[in-house]
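Subject: for your reference before the review

Hello V.,

The reviewers asked for a structural picture of the protein, and I figured it would be easier to keep everything in one thread rather than splitting it across files. Below is the amino acid sequence we used in the manuscript, unchanged from the supplementary table.
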Amino acid sequence: QVQLVESGGGLVQAGDSLRVSCTASDRTFSTYIMGWFRQAPGKEREFAARITPSGGRTYYADSVKGRFTISRDNAKNTVYLQMNSLKPEDTAVYYCAAGRIISTDARSYDYWGQGTQVTVSS
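And here is what came back from the structure prediction:
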């Protein structure tokens, strides 16, 4: 059982940057594909970014491509999401997830964090 804990959310202004982190409790972290998803009020959870276990390959949703960067530090059991040029429409609860399948589908991920709120004011 992998426990994931997100941190780093907050309230920022449009155009600002923010980095959210997700730390895993288990050293098997380095064997998992890690994803970041987000859920805005009244909307379904949507894929944002994913990274392979070694960190060698990343993939982004079109809505965040060029603005967000996913990375990981396996020595620290931590995955990051650097968010630049934030927009009000980026406002959501951000969740990290761990899985064994390369996918943008939330159902493919086995473990989830509790989420961290990111609010972008205009």
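For the response letter, the relevant points are probably these. The chain has a mean pLDDT of 97. The chain is about 0% helix and 50% strand.

Happy to draft the paragraph if you're swamped.

O.
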